[in-house]
């Protein structure tokens, strides 16, 4: 790339999924839409100046690439005819890219539902949606899945091939409930990548905002689903702390954040969404996670946090939706409630997170607080080797330096 790297990256992140969704819907070919958007982004590296409307430029170039491909493929004449009205736009005209109305009017949400088709296995559904809708790169998704990049890439290729070969349409299922669990997992992973991005300086608020927007759209379609409302609450609580989580490019831990900068309006919206979810009296894992987040969001000071209740909630979550990451979070909560040694004892029983940097960061912190600084430093170094987030790297460097210079 050249002088416009940052703008092209922004275009891919913020507009790529929208353009892909529009083209996939209009041409009826997910793979074609994806390839043409990637071709257009590659063409953007030859810009001599940034277009007045980069999103419209991306749509126009990707659309024209799709039309050219369809023209060259005799077997695709029918699809070309169905999309022929798109070719009536003058080449210099910037299209409005108006989202067409449907039962689920949000084009990106429609694309999420396509990627979450039950004919695809669960991991493929999530990976494909993160790649095509969330705009995450293959390395970012592999990190979220804790799998090698090559494994994740093959998973995405196979999923796209299955959609093409099976002729799975970009359509709305008769019941959204049949796909909601996978859709929620997808949106949560998009949110998590935005909350602390693997590839950015700190957070990527564009992904956080996109996760909130899509979750809100899903909630409008499923207003009585408590897990959808709970995920929305969880996302709102996280975003409320955006201004406090980084200071001068440095990561600020939760207990050290300036809570006067937390967004009270977002916390209020989160409280209302969570209350509506809990009123349904249908327990679920996102409701527990949102309740835990609410305890942090509504504590006036770090000292007011009820860590005993949070540890108990994590124990319930571990029974309801067991995973090594939940076990890790429970261990940290127990450490905050009962002391670092108690948390370390639980952490010793957590397995499967050897390549997860937050496991090693938590281990280093608990070892340091237990007074075992000789063991803490290698744990922090291991965490540092497993992350690429610049703010996290600087935080870990500070922790390692503090241990080396402690008396």
What distinguishing features does this structure have?
407 residues
What is the structure about, briefly put?
With 407 residues, this protein is mainly alpha-helical. Helices cover 65% and strands 1% of the residues.
Structure description:
The chain has 407 residues and is mainly alpha-helical. It has a domain at 5-88. It has 20 helices and two strands. The protein has helices at residues 5-14, 16-27, 30-44, 54-72, 77-82, 107-115, 122-132, 138-145, 149-166, 180-195, 205-221, 226-240, 264-279, 285-297, 307-320, 324-338, 340-347, 357-369, 373-385, 390-404; strands at residues 246-247, 250-251. A two-stranded antiparallel sheet has the order 1-2. Strand 1 and strand 2 (250-251) form a beta hairpin. The protein starts with a helix and ends with a helix.
The biggest beta sheet is recorded as: 2 strands, antiparallel
Please list the strands of the largest sheet in the order they lie side by side.
Answer: 1-2
- The count of β-strands is 2
Number of helices: 20
- Quote the average pLDDT: 84
Shape: globular
Q: What's the helical proportion of residues? A: 55-70%
Provide the structure class.
Answer: mainly alpha
Low-confidence stretches: 89-104
List the quaternary state of the chains.
single chain
- Distance from first to last alpha carbon: 48 Å
Gyration radius, in Å: 23 Å
| H and E order | HHHHHHHHHHHHEEHHHHHHHH
Strand content: under 5%
